[in-house]
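FORM 12-B: Structure-to-Sequence Request
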């Protein structure tokens, strides 16, 4: 069962010039996941950690800088997201950065992104649970994660600041 949990979410970036992790965003434009990682990271060390590289990845980018899609957050918010935070911290960070980029690209928090399209087929904002849990974990983090010195806290707060307006707008929409 644990093996199956590492099959999702889908890594949705491809190597570009210099292995920049190019992908088609929800806005129909080509983006770079490496640029996203630099944009959303409060420090440059979190996006270049060698410990977060995947041995079978299609690019040289670490998982924390990868762009993910096919996010069935309605199905995964109770257990899979928590499991990612515990066992695949770099992938969870990449997932948070991906959801933040999607929020900026479409002007709304993603509900069910499939490839470069927002299906919007589920109610609620279940992906927010991953961000909230990352904030809670970062409060307890003693600095032993991907970033030493409590980098998770700064990362989670930076991402939360970007998506907060979209979450509040969606929550107040009848």
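FORM 12-B RESPONSE
SEQUENCE OUT:
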């Amino acid at each position: 069962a644990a093996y199956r949990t590492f099959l999702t979410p889908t890594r949705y970036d491809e190597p570009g010039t210099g292995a920049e992790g190019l992908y088609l965003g929800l806005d129909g434009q080509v983006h770079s996941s490496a640029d996203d990682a630099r944009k959303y990271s409060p420090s440059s060390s979190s996006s270049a950690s060698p410990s977060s590289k995947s041995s079978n990845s299609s690019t040289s980018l670490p998982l924390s800088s990868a762009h993910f899609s096919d996010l069935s957050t309605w199905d995964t918010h109770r257990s899979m997201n928590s499991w990612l935070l515990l066992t695949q911290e770099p992938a969870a960070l990449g997932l948070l950065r991906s959801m933040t980029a999607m929020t900026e690209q479409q002007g709304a928090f993603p509900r069910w992104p499939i490839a470069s399209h927002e299906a919007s087929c589920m109610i609620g904002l279940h992906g927010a649970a991953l961000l909230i849990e990352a904030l809670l974990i970062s409060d307890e983090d003693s600095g032993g994660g991907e970033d030493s010195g409590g980098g998770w806290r700064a990362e989670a707060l930076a991402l939360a600041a970007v998506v907060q307006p979209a979450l509040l707008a969606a929550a107040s929409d009848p």
